[in-house]
Amino acid sequence: MLSWLANAWRVPELRKRVLFTAFVLAVYRFGSWVPAPGIDQAAIQSYFSGAGGSILTLLNLFSGSALSRFSIFALGIMPYVTASIILQLLTVVVPSLERLQKEGEAGYAKITQYTRYLTVVLAAAQSTGYAFLFKRQGALPNVNAGKMVIIVVTLTAGCTLLMWMGEMITKRGVGNGISLLIFASILAYAPAGISAWINGGTMERLFFPIIAIGIVVAVVFVQEGQRRIPIQYARRQLGNRQTGGGSTYMPLRVNMAGVIPVIFAAAIMALPPTIAEFVPAWSGFVNRHFLPSSWWYLFIEAVLIIVFTYFYTSVQFNPVDQADNLRKYGGYIPGIRPGPPTAAYLDRVLQRLTLPGSLFLATIAVAPSVFIRYFGFSQATSRALGGTSVLIVVGVALDTMRQMESQMMMRHYEGFLR
Known about the structure:
Blueprint lengths: L1 H9 L1 H20 L9 H9 L5 H8 L3 H4 L8 H16 L1 H7 L3 H32 L8 H28 L4 H22 L3 H23 L1 E8 L1 E4 L2 E4 L2 E7 L6 H10 L1 H6 L3 H10 L5 H22 L2 H10 L2 E2 L7 H35 L4 H7 L2 H23 L8
Antiparallel strand pairs: 1-4, 1-5, 2-3
Helix pairs in contact: 2-9, 2-10, 6-7, 6-8, 6-12, 7-8, 8-9, 9-10, 10-18, 10-19, 11-19, 12-15, 15-17, 16-17
C-alpha cells in the first residue's frame, strides 16, 4: 500500500491531478460552511434535529450537512444529477437528442450544455422550495421578496459552481467529479454517524460494526465480480505475413452501472417533497408516503434502482455495437456465429448478470431504513455508515483507484489493484 502511494506520487501528471482534486474538494467543504444571506442557523439546526426520518435527512447526507447549515452549497450536486437523468431518459424518446448522442463528441457537448441549462432551472426551483419551507419554520425572519430572491440566486449560483467544479475534477483531476463530490459529502457526514453509534444502544454498538463490515465485503465482491466471455481472433494475411490470432476475453461486470442507479433513485425520490413545498395541499400525502422509513418509499426506491440499473447498463454496453466491433476486427465467440447471433448472446448474458446486480443494489439501499425501523438503530448511524453510504463510498473509491491504476500502468509502475 505505501509503495503504491509512493509510486503514485512519483508520477508528475498523476501528482498534479491528485492535488487538483484535493484542492477542489477542500473548496467544496469550505463553501459548505459559508451560510447563505439572511438566515437563522440556530432555527434551521433546531428544525433538522426534529426532522427525524424525513427526506431532508437523506438530502442533508448527500450535501455533507450543508443543507442543515443552509450554506451556499445547500443544494449539493443533486440538481445536476436529476438533470442528467432527465436528459438521458429523453435521449431514448426524443429523436433529435438520440441523433445528437450518435454524433460523437460534438453531440455529447450539446447534450451536456442542455444538462447545464436544466440544472440551473431545477436548482432555482429547489432553492425556492427550501426558502419557502424554512420561512414557514421561522428560520428566515423578516425576509421580504427581495431577500428571498437573493437567497434563491445564492443557492442556485452555489449549485452551478458545484457543477463546474465537478466537471473540472473529471477533466483535470482523478475520477468522476460528480461522484467524488457526493463521496466527500458522505465522508463529511461520517463523524456524526460514528458519534451516534458510540452513544447508541447496546444492540447497535455490538452488531452495527459487523453489519457494516459485511456490507463493505459484499459491495467489493459484487463490484469486482465479472463474467469473462472468451474471444477468439482469426489470423489475417497482410502482404507476406500473418497478423492477429490468439484468444482473450471480454469482461462483463455483474454491476456494470456502479453506484449511479442509487444516486439517480435518490435524486428522483427528492422531487416529490420539493414539489410539495409549492403545493401545500400535497404536503400531507407526501409526508405520509415519502418518509425514508415508509414501505411506499422503500418499494418505489427499490424499483427505481432496478430500472435505472438496467437503463444505465444499456447505455454503458451496447451488444449490437460490441458484436459489430468484434466482426470488424476478426473476433468471434467460440460456438457463436458473428453478427446478430453474437449480439443476442451478449444481450442474454448481460440481462442475466444485471438482474442479481440490480437486486443487490436495491437490497443494500433499503437496508438502513429496515435497521432503523425494526432494530432500533439511530438515523445518523444508519444513514452515514450503512447501506447507500457505504455503497457509494466504496464504489467511488474503487472507480477512482482503477483510474489511478491505469495511469500508473501506462508508466510501468506496479499498481495497487492486483
